[in-house]
């Protein structure tokens, strides 16, 4: 069972390149501060500290240390570096959050819920059959340094793992599932905006997309991000949404 104290709690996020500006980190910090009681350290692993607010502790993203062919990128696997045996000397529990989530409820229980490793149970698709193992790594919690074998195995077997698994969350989920360490957040805590907030057709043409009542963190993946949702934009033809006005207050 996970034992935590306020002194041991960390919020981790990761920012590299130019897809997300510093405002995403700053907004994420503000949301966490509103929704997580007590003390915590907010750490951004990043390649640029420019524009990031002073309350955020910026540290370098560890080198993934894998061989890449010319033109190959390691972006889909960078999150695995959070499992370094020694991540900048950080100790205790860490809750990793993607930069483009929107927090709408208390985060306290994300640290209190028992389990070695918790992640979102990836959202069901009608075309997928059998038991779903893969988690969505937009939100995961773990003991810092406790799962170093995740990264060590990937480094030792990079080509095999990249050929077998589509991305880091698929590899991570299967690796920890085989060890009996994989647990999921309660189903309602981390809903997908795309799947659980947008009203069904045809009501999506006049009803605002809103989070389910038990939502804590709304996940934006695929073709919609928070600024688009706020303005009522969807990056697919014939997929209308009304402006999600609640984001203006919640996101920031």
What features would you describe in this structure?
The chain has 252 residues and is an alpha/beta fold. It has 2 domains: 9-185, Spore Coat Polysaccharide Biosynthesis Protein SpsA, Chain A (Alpha-Beta Complex), CATH 3.90.550.10; 203-251, no CATH class. Helix content is 25%, strand content 17%. It has 8 helices and 9 strands. It has helices at residues 22-35, 108-112, 148-156, 158-164, 168-178, 193-197, 226-231, 246-250; strands at residues 9-15, 41-46, 57-60, 93-97, 102-103, 117-121, 135-143, 182-184, 217-218. The protein has a 7-stranded mixed β-sheet, with helices on both faces. Strand 1 (9-15), helix 1 (22-35) and strand 2 (41-46) form a beta-alpha-beta unit. The chain is globular and about 50 Å long. The chain starts with 8 loop residues before the first strand and ends with a helix. Residues 1-6 have low confidence and may be disordered.
Would you spell out the secondary-structure blueprint of this structure?
Elements: E1 9-15, H1 22-35, E2 41-46, E3 57-60, E4 93-97, E5 102-103, H2 108-112, E6 117-121, E7 135-143, H3 148-156, H4 158-164, H5 168-178, E8 182-184, H6 193-197, E9 217-218, H7 226-231, H8 246-250
Parallel strand pairs: 1-2, 1-4, 2-3, 6-8
Antiparallel strand pairs: 4-7, 5-9, 6-7
Descriptive tags:
single chain, 252 residues, alpha/beta, Spore Coat Polysaccharide Biosynthesis Protein SpsA, Chain A, 2 domains, 7-stranded mixed β-sheet, two-stranded antiparallel ribbon, disordered N terminus, Glycosyltransferase, transferase
């Amino acid at each position: 069972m996970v034992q935590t104290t306020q002194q041991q709690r960390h919020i981790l996020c990761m920012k590299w390149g130019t897809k997300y500006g510093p405002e995403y980190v700053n907004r994420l910090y503000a949301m966490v501060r509103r929704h997580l009681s007590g003390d915590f350290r907010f750490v951004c692993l990043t390649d640029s500290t420019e524009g990031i607010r002073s309350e955020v502790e910026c540290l370098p993203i560890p080198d993934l240390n894998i061989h890449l062919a010319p033109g190959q990128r390691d972006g889909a696997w960078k999150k695995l570096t959070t499992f370094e045996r020694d991540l900048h000397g950080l100790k205790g529990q860490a809750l990793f959050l993607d930069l483009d989530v929107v927090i709408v409820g208390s985060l306290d229980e994300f640290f209190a819920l028992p389990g070695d490793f918790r992640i979102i149970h990836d959202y069901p698709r009608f075309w997928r059959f059998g038991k779903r193992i893969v988690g969505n790594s937009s939100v995961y919690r773990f003991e810092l340094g406790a799962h170093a074998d995740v990264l060590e195995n990937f480094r030792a077997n990079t080509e095999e793992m990249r050929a077998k698994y589509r991305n880091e969350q698929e590899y991570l989920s299967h690796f920890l599932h085989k060890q009996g360490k994989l647990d999921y957040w309660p189903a309602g805590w981390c809903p997908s905006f795309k799947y659980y907030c947008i009203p069904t057709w045809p009501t999506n043409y006049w009803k605002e997309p809103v989070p389910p009542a038990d939502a804590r963190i709304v996940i934006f993946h695929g073709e919609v991000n928070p600024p688009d949702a706020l303005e009522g934009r969807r990056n697919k033809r014939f997929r209308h949404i009304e402006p999600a006005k609640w984001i203006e207050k919640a996101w920031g």
